[in-house]
């Protein structure tokens, strides 16, 4: 088993299509995604209900922009720093390259979306490969939060 890290964002206004998380594996290791959680706190009534297509993609050769860098936090405090890179809430999405959609979900925004991958279905990013969790533009702005759990092997 490798080192386990989490990356998160909270209380972010999401009004445009974006990459909620962008993770790039280190050049000398792989990254395994264990789970993903997203939710929102602003649209809670029946009239505000909508369903959004969430995707986990990999293969983009150009990083997204408009968000921010995030340093994943080790679960075991004092553990080594994450060897790859992570960005959150990029409003210009990662592009180019051969983009592959590995997983897609229909998210009803009235309830959080919690994905816990079984070992056989966990997305694996090979060395230097980029993975992104994308969301389309919601009908109206959502105040969102999210967490992704990553395992770094090698590095």
What does this structure look like?
- By secondary structure, this protein is mainly β.
- The chain has one domain: Jelly Rolls (Sandwich), CATH 2.60.120.
- The chain has no helices and twelve strands.
- The protein has strands at 3-14, 18-24, 29-40, 51-58, 68-69, 73-74, 85-90, 100-108, 113-116, 124-125, 130-135, 142-154.
- Strands 1, 3, 6, 9, 10 and 12 form a six-stranded antiparallel beta sheet that branches. The chain has a six-stranded antiparallel beta sheet with strand order 5-7-2-11-4-8, with no helix packed on it.
- It is globular and about 50 Å long.
- The mean pLDDT is 94.
Descriptive tags:
about 160 residues; mainly beta; Jelly Rolls; six-stranded antiparallel β-sheet; 12 strands; about 0% helix
User: Uncertain spans, ≥5 residues at pLDDT below 50?
Assistant: none
Distance N to C terminus = 13 Å
Nearest-integer average pLDDT:
94
The description of the largest β-sheet is: 6 strands, antiparallel
Q: H/E element string?
A: EEEEEEEEEEEE
CATH topology: Jelly Rolls
Please give the radius of gyration in angstroms: 15 Å
- Which CATH C-level class is it? Mainly Beta
Give the total of beta strands.
Answer: 12
Instruction: Provide a count of the helices.
Output: 0
Helix content: under 10%
Please, what is the oligomeric state?
single chain
Instruction: Give the CATH architecture.
Output: Sandwich
Query: How many independent structural domains?
Result: 1
C-alpha geometry: globular
Which class of secondary structure composition applies to the elements? Answer: mainly beta
Percent strand equals: over 45%
């Amino acid at each position: 088993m490798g080192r386990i890290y989490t990356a998160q964002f909270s209380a972010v206004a999401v009004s445009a299509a974006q990459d909620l998380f962008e993770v790039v594996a280190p050049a000398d290791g792989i990254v395994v995604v264990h789970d993903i959680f997203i939710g929102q706190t602003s649209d809670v009534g029946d009239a505000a209900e909508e369903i959004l297509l969430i995707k986990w993609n990999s293969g983009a050769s150009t990083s997204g922009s408009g968000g921010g860098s995030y340093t994943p936090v080790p679960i075991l405090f004092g553990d080594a720093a994450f060897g790859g890179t992570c960005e959150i809430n990029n409003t210009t999405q990662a592009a180019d390259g051969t983009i592959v959609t590995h997983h897609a979900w229909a998210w009803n925004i009235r309830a959080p979306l919690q994905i816990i991958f079984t070992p056989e279905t966990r997305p694996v990013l090979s060395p230097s490969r980029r993975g992104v969790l994308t969301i389309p533009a919601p009908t109206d702005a959502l105040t969102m939060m999210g967490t992704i759990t990553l395992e770094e092997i090698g590095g």
